[in-house]
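Predict the 3D structure for this chain.
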Amino acid sequence: MTILVVEYERLLSESLCELLSRHGFTAEAAYDGPSGLEFALTGVYDLIVLDVMLPGFDGFELARRLRARRVGTPILMLTARSGLDDRVEGLDAGADYYLAKPFETRELLACINAMLRRQGAQVEELAYGDAALDLASAELVHGDRRVRLSAREFELARCLFSAGGRNVSKETLLIKVWGWESEAVDNNVEVYVGFLRRKLAAIGSLVRIKAQRSLGYHLEAGT
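Done. Predicted structure below.
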């Protein structure tokens, strides 16, 4: 599971990322509204921990922009602004839960785990164009045709289908599919993109994986 922490205070951000890493999550950090939006739009995160007080534009605006673009990633809003009006504004902006600072570590982890469990129960497949990715069986589906994916093909497909047609960089795919400690390189991504393209074609889907120079890969629905 990969979590994006959007927090202006670098010391707190580093502490949160370290805490999450110790509990088995992959954590990445952004420090202002615009970079938080850019990171979140890649679609590779399972949850976003979002502070309200951010440079550029605040967490309320970031949540609104994500929901306006139909990004359904769960958002845990984490802030010292704990008044009723602030909580209401955060939830209205699209946050799923609002946790006030200071907080207990156990409470934070319990909220994150509860939100991830709820998200996992609600989402059974990711669809794009005429194809879908069955998350339970790790299969690509088009109509009544299905093909099983290997573990890495499945993770690659999940990144691309989650992005909903937005570009996902090779660097992001390497981290998400192969992991931080892997010695995999760009060529590994290219090889597995080739595998996935052939499997989409094998089930008769018109969805195509397009490469965009310097930006990575994205899905196109095809006609």
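Residues 82 and 100 are 5 Å apart (CA to CA).
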